[in-house]
Each structure stands twice: as C-alpha cells, then as structure tokens.
Amino acid sequence: MSPETFVPDLDDARVLAAHERVLRQALTIRYTELRLLHLFSEGKLFGTVHTCIGQEFTGPAIAAYLEEGDTWFSNHRCHGHFLAYCDEVDGLIAEVMGRDSGVCGGLGGSQHLQHKRFFSNGVQGGIAPVATGLGLAHQLDKHDAISVVCIGDGTLGEGVLYESLNIASRWDLPLLIVLEDNGYAQSTARTQTLAGDVEARFQAFGIGTSRSATWQWDELVTGMGASVARVRTSGRPHCHVVQTYRLRAHSKGDDDRAPAEIAAYEERDPLNLLLARYADHAWVRTTLAQIDERLAQAVKRADAAPYGAMPALPPRAAAPVWSKVAFEKQRVVTSVRDALERALAEDPRTIVFGEDVESPYGGAFKATAELSARFPGRVRNAPISEAAIIGVGNGLALAGYRPYAEIMFGDFLSLATDQWINHAAKFAGMYRHQVTVPLTVRTPMGGHRGYGPTHSQSLERLFVGAPGTRVLALHHRMSPAALYAALRKAEPLPTLVVENKLLYACQADAAPPPGFQLLQDSAGFPTSRLQPEGPADVTLVVIGGLSVEAERAVLHVLEEDELLVDLFLPTQLYPFDATFLAESLMQTRRLVVAEEGQGFAGLGSEILAQVAELALPHAVRVARVSAAPVPIPSARPLEAQALPTAESIIQKIREVTRG
Amino acid sequence: MAEPASVLVPRENVNDDIVTLVRWHAAPGERVRAGQLLFEIETAKTVYTIEAEVEGYVEIVCPAGEEIAVGELAARIHDTPFAVVVPPPAAPAVGASSAASGGNGAQVITKKARALIDEKGLDVALFKHLAIVRESDVQQALEHGAKAGVGSTQAGHPSNASNTVPSATSGAAGGRIGALKDVFVSSRERGTNPFTLALNYLFRNYLLGLLVRIAPRGVILVLHRMRGVKMGSGVFIDPTAIVETAYPENITIGNDVRIAAGSVIMTHLKAPHHLRETGLIPNLVKEVVLEDSCFIGINAVVMPGVRVGKASVVISGSVVFSDVPPYTMVQGNPARVIKRFPRPDRAQG
Ligand SMILES: Cc1ncc(C[n+]2csc(CCOP(=O)(O)OP(=O)(O)O)c2C)c(N)n1
C-alpha cells in the first residue's frame, strides 16, 4: 500500500480539464452502481449485480483510447466497462430492471450486455477466445481496430484463456487483455489458488505486459494509452494488469474479507479521497448533481417501462409435403469438400479452420483437401484447442464472418461444450437478436473403425437441445453439398453438422433401390424418406450415418420377411418436430428409432416422446436401437457388438411386427 | 497350370474402407510384367496406382468406375492365356433387391415370392405391374387362375411405378390397330396437347422426310425444340438422325452435343401386341440424357433410359443399352467402354 493515491488538484483548471472526462465517467459508474445496490435492496432488480465499486478507473482508462471499430468483451463485472464505453445509463438501469427499454430488452440482464461493439458474458474465461476471434476479424478486415477483453485474476485458472493467448500470439492478433487483479475470486484469495507469476503466464506466449494500479489512476490512464497504442500499431496481443481492489461484496451480501482490510482500502480509494477533499468544489457539486438527476430520471423511466417481451417461439411444423428428389451421386467427403470450396469461392467472409485442415494433409478425413492452397489465409490450421477453435469461430461470426470450424473427431466436441452452449447458443437470444452467430461447426462422429472408446462416439445427443442452435446430420440419402448450400441461405444460427467417418467414403445417392421411391419434405433441411411401393408395415427413423446400415436392414426384411419398411432419415436433429411421422404411423402403427449413440436420453427417446404427444388415435408399438451402455471397444468384433448395425435394426423391426 | 494370382485392393490409409477403381491400365487378357501399372484406385485423399506383382495374363474382376472394398479381389493374373469373358450389358434390375444398383421404379421380388413363382412355373412378367412382389401377390395371382407358362391375368394392387405404361390397347389383342387410334389413345393417356402431338406426328412421319435435304441446321434444332426435346446450345443434330418418335419430351441434350447421321435416340420401347400382352416385353418409357459435349457417331443407337456421360463418345454403329460414364469411348453391340479420356476436372496421380 505504499505509493500515495493520486488526487488531482481540481483548483487548477488545466489539471481539471485534463482529467475531467475520466473523472466524470468514474463518478457516473460509482453512483450508478450505488443506485443499483439501492434498487436491489428495494427488490427492483432481478438476480444480482457484481459492482466494480473501487475499480471504476479501468473502464474509463480503456475507453479514452478506443476508436470506432474497436470491440470490447467484458465479464460478469461489466457495468463500469459498459458505461465507459457508451454512457448508456438509461439502457443499463432498465436492463438490470428487466425492462423493454434496457439495452437487451431485459433478456440479458446485468452480466449479458451488448451495445454496438460492446459485449459481456458471465462465464469466466469463455469470453477470451471469442475476443480472440474478434481480433482475427479485425486482422482480416485489414483495419487497425483492436479487440479488448477484460478478465479478473480468478479467471487465470481457466484453461481456455491459455488456448486463446497462444492463438492470439501465434496468429498476431490485435488483442488487448486487461487483467483486473483485485486479489480475490468471489471469496477466494488469489494467493490461495494461483501458482507462479501472473505476468510470466503472458510472457510465456510471447505477449508483452504492462502494469498499473487504480490508486495512481493518472498513470493507469496513460499506461493504458500506451498499451492500446502498442496493440494497434503492432497488431499483436498485449496484456495490461490493473492492480485494484473491490470495495463491496463480490455480488450481494457475500463478503467474508476482514473488515479492517476493506476499511484500509476505503480510506485510500481515489474517489473517496477526491470527494472528501473537494466536497464543496463547484465542478464536483454540479457533476454529482447532474449524475443524480440522470439516475433519478433513468430509474423513473425504467420503472414506467414495460418488462421486455418474451421472444417469439417457433411455430409447430405443418404436415409435410413429400416430393421426389434428385441430386448428383457423389462421394460424401467430396461433396462436403466441394461445398466448402464453393462457400470459400463465393463468399469472401468464409473462413475454414481446425486442426490439420491445411494442405497437403487437408483434414483428418480430407474434407478440406487442397483448399488452403487455393484460399491461403482463409483455410487455417489451428492448434489443438477445441474450445478456442469454436470460441474464435464465435468471435468471427459476431463480426459478420462465416466461419466453418472443423473438430477432428466428434468426441472432442466435449472440450468446446461451453463455447457451444454458453456462447454460440446464447449470444443472439440474450442480446435481443441484435447480433447473429452464423457459425458452422463440422465434426465426424461414428464408430465401426476400430478407433476405440474416445474416437468412435456419436455424441449428438449431448449437443441437441440448446435453444438458439441448429444440429444437422449427414446421411447417404441427401446431398451434403445441397445441405451446405442451404445452410448459407438459412437463418444465421450457430449450426453443428454431424458428419460421419464411415459415411465419408459412401456415395450420397438419390437413386432408390428397386421397390422404393426416395422422397424429401419441403423443410429447409429436409427429411429424406425411402418409401416402399405399397402399404408399409413398419416406420423406421434413423439418425445420421447409420442410414447406410438401416437401408441394408430395410432391404433385408423385404427380401426375407416380406416386410415393407417406411424409412425416415431426418437431416435436422434440432430443433426437431416429429409431426412428419404421423401419416406413416397411422398406416404402420409400429415404430423403430435407431441411433448410433447411447440410447439413454437419446434422440430416439425424444422422438418417442414426441410421437406419444402426437396422440394418434391408436397405440404405436415402439422399439429403440442404440449403442450398448459400454465404452466402445477397440477390437472390431467387440465394437460390432457394442454398436448398432443392420442386424440389430432387423431384430427390432422383427420384434415390433411379431405377434 | 497354376492357380491365378489374386490382386486385392490394398489399404492405403486409415479412413477408407471403400475405394473407387477409377481406371484400368491393362486390357482384359493382356500380358503384363511384374511392376507394370495395373489400375488406379481413388480414396478420399488421392489416387493411388496399383502394379502387378507377378507376370501373367490379366483377368479384370472389378471394372473401372466401380466401388470396391479394401481387401476385395480386383483382378486375377493367370500364368497362361485364358478366354476373356465379356460381361453382358447390365440387365434390368428385375428381382434384384440389393441396394447396390437399382433404378427408380425397378422391381423387387421377395425370396418367398420368387420361390413360389419358380415352384409353380409362373412367368414373372405376370407381375410386371408390381414394384414389389410378395408371396401374397403370387398367391392371389394363383387364385385368379394364373398358370405355368404365359399368364393371362394381372395380380395384386396397382403399381405406382412410373416406367410401365399401361398398354394403349389392352383387351384389343388380335384386333387391327390403326395408327390413328393408337395416337388418340396415347394422347389421352399422356394428356399431351393435341397440337404438340400432331406436330410430332407430322414431323416424324412427313416433315422430317421432306425437310431432310433442304432445312438449314438451325431450323432442324428449332423443330426438335418445338417437339419438346430439351436442348442446350451449340448442338448439332444431323437431319437423318431420329431423335425419338413418340416421347421427344423425355430427351435432354446438353451443350455442344453432336448427333451424327443415321443415329437413333429412343426413349420408348413398344413391342408387338403378342409380346406386350403376354408381358414378355412390357412397354417401356425412360428418359435419355446426352450430357455436354458427348458425340453420338454415325448409325449409333441409344436405347431408353440411357445416360451418355459428359464428353463421351459412342462409336459409329454401336448400340447403347446402359449408361456411358463421362470421358469414355464406347463401342459395339452392346456398347462397352474401350477407352477412357483423362478427366480435366480430376487431379491425376
Ligand atoms: C466458468 C465459471 N465458473 C464460475 C463462475 C462463478 N463466478 C462468477 S464470478 C467468479 C469469480 C471471478 O473472479 P475474478 O475472475 O477474479 O473476477 P472478479 O469477480 O474478481 O472481478 C466466479 C467464481 C463463473 N461465472 N464462471
């Protein structure tokens, strides 16, 4: 606590002029947050607020140097940053009060603000790769805009931060990391959880660091200016550590720090000292009066405003219209590759990246073969950082790019779950659809290759059901190229496309086998239907690449058992509406659902539940086909027992038709 | 004579269990030396070349253009010359129930149905109107008096398969069928505009013969288009070529296609009454597609349902029953691939 707190000489007009803007912002932040705490005790706020009382100078220091195109990503403690960015006192107060006039219509609330190029999200660390992606967008835009991300010292514990630092440094991205070190994460002292040195973490990635403190906020402001300039001119990442102290509770009523410790910081707090020394200063009095008046008006207006509107829910699907399909017969992986090539050629905003996607390797399954040679810089090898790959995709998408991220094996999507569920899925909805996230994630799933327990799974069931996202799956009775073409025209939602390792080598083919016709409904991502030429006995719904085995099963039971199976291959797994099955089930009254993943709480369970809710006039006999509840064995004969095949589907078809 | 050596498809990478045999570098029966290039396979990644490991005479098991599983037999190499068996043209997929081929609307006969048909010595043509023939369909036909040999009844539910056109004159077997009546019946069936139909008839029966020697090339193309032939640009059709007589709308011709003198492109097949009525040769209407830049040589015949691939050549006098892959040259009756052109759109090696 050695050096003295900086208190400017307000009686010197030149000094006052030099600091007025930052001081006014800091005071606005302080009094807005005090008002929010007051509103909280009055029961007028929803959830909680994390105030930055004591830390106010960081935001104004950054804002002093930002330019029009710059982006700023903040965290749970974001009010100060937000007000420094745009001074939207009304929008903030209304937002936290859940009102329609809030910056996000009350959908985001305290931790999820968005206005122009300012964003915040309440997941520690997850914002780092998104900000990195925004940095990549700035680099690709060839402007000198920079991306700023604010994190707390507790967030140094999150792994995805280091994936982001690595990428930002290796790819020379203009990213300014502002680390507000207030010594605590919630209730835990930094000394208890942090090993090693703070700056050394950044330096290990070749990222320079600077340090300043709240108490010498004049130096903080000039230091931040130097940091911003450094990022802007070098186009490289930099970290600025701000030593600070939070004077109030982490959120509300949860402060276990020693009162004496807090009191000591209260005494040296720059705003407290300034207000004590200049209580009767004309500028201070008018400024405080203006702020008071603004806040009073803001609360009054928010109080009078209606609550935000509930987002519109998608309508129920209508009965489908089926028609015959035609598409060029093509190897699935070639079709995917060609679609990516077309997207790259036709839309300069298309960016393809992932592990090992560059030539000559061209992706573990060759879906990006030769693309990097044709589109240098827009097809990129990423480090083994699944979370950051999707996170960077999120940032690019927020900036208006069309990123296609490849995750080498579907199994590894688990590492990026937070980016998918808490970022990609949430941005549009929680920011009141003021942004879109046209991110496509492609990944192969599926087994039968002897790759064993961690490279063979079908995990789509873990990724369906995140509102705001779309999950699609390839099968051999649709054209992958057509799917990707449709995706480019569709509503820009984060979309996971489940590809399939075995399917890559198969032909996507529209020519039906003898005795069947191939139909598709009119949905944007149509369901394919292999309908027998005659009244069907069984309805079969199959997920993804299991389609090939399923069709074998269908042909087998026709030949051997004289059973006509109406086979449905949905392309869109989420959102999913089973209405299209009603007509077939009215005829068959028997339903088999088959997926390669686990059956427990799987796609099949969802389909059966929805079919039950269709309340058909008669009972439907049902059966599920799914993987055995064991880790997938490597040994091929054991794997074949663990995973669904034509044989297991045939067995269930026979089961529902027996007796 | 020793057992022939087997040439199996090798595994080239971890990803592909099925590859495409893209090109043969040896002809059937050709003598090859060890180390000589045999064929190329295409995986998801690239094209690999496969060489002969022993000297001998090549027997091709997997033709070019087919998919083949890793570890499967692609060829045998005999130590003595052997009789080269020419594979027959692809038969219509009647009774085939594998997913491998199968065109739209082809028929499938179940195992039990097939057994009963065989047991009773029935003619499968009895069931030509059914896309799927089950045991119950055969039983029904038997109840309706179907007998061994030529059938006289049709059995089962009506088919919605699109390639079997009901006979225009069913029930009139033996009667004299005038050309005019034939026209009207088929006009009604097809719901075609009578003007178009009349134009077709005029064109094929009268105008064509008349205009052959005098019409400039452009006019011929216009007339074909008016008849309903779908056609790209830069097409040449010799005046003496017959571009389908009854269903010209079922023909699609790409850009830069040449159809030389005397060629016949057919999209329908209509046998004499007896053969039709007994179902021995059912009526057939199937689209024909001539892709961009293909070349139909003098006096060649293209039969219904055939797709002639891009930049392929049908050599003069050939009769084409099955699809011609792109960038190939076919010859003979039935036409077979005799040469493959390098594909500009595919990476070599
Ligand atoms: C991934 C994640 N884990 C836990 C939390 C709950 N949480 C919210 S704030 C916080 C402490 C964050 O500490 P720090 O990064 O130092 O920021 P500060 O609160 O001190 O500003 C925690 C644990 C969270 N929001 N996200």
Q: What overall form of chain A do the CA principal axes indicate?
A: elongated
- Number of helices, where a helix is a run of at least 4 consecutive DSSP H or I residues of chain A: 24
Helix content range of chain B: 10-25%
Strand content of chain A: 15-25%
What is the third-level CATH name, the topology of the largest domain in chain A?
Rossmann fold
CATH architecture verdict of the largest domain in chain A: 3-Layer(aba) Sandwich
Count of helix runs of chain B: 6
| Secondary structure category of chain B | alpha/beta
Q: What is the CA-based Rg of chain A, rounded?
A: 29 Å
Q: What are the distinct ligands in this entry?
A: thiamine diphosphate
Write up what this structure looks like:
The complex is a heterodimer of chains A (659) and B (349). With 659 residues, chain A is α/β, with parallel strands linked by helices. Chain A is 40% helix and 17% strand. In chain A, a hairpin with a 2-residue loop joins strand 2 (114-115) and strand 3 (118-120). In chain A, helix 1 packs across helix 3 (79-86), helix 1 packs parallel to helix 12 (282-304) and helix 4 (89-96) crosses helix 12 (282-304). Chain A starts with 12 loop residues before the first helix and ends with a helix. Chain B is of the alpha/beta class and 349 residues long. Chain B has three domains: 5-78, RNA polymerase II/Efflux pump adaptor protein, barrel-sandwich hybrid domain (OB fold (Dihydrolipoamide Acetyltransferase, E2P)); 98-164, no CATH class; 212-348, 3 Solenoid (UDP N-Acetylglucosamine Acyltransferase, domain 1). Chain B has helices spanning 111-120, 135-143, 179-190, 194-211, 217-227, 273-277; strands at 5-8, 18-24, 31-32, 37-42, 47-51, 56-60, 67-69, 73-78, 108-109, 132-133, 230-231, 236-237, 242-243, 251-253, 258-259, 264-265, 268-269, 284-285, 288-290, 295-296, 301-302, 307-308, 313-314, 319-320, 328-331, 336-340. Chain B has a six-stranded mixed β-sheet. The longest helix of chain B has 18 residues, at 194-211. The radius of gyration of chain B is 24 Å and the shape is flat. The model of chain B is unreliable at 86-105 and 150-178 (pLDDT under 50). Chain A binds chain B through residues 331, 333-334, 362, 364-366, 369-370, 449, 501-502, 504-507, 511-515, 517, 532-534, 551-552, 555, 558-560, 562, 564, and chain B through 14-20, 43-45, 67, 93-94, 96-99, 102-108, 110-113, 130-132, 134-136, 157, 159-161, 347. Bound molecules: thiamine diphosphate. Thiamine diphosphate is lined by residues 76-77, 122-124, 151-155, 182, 184-186, 250 of chain A.
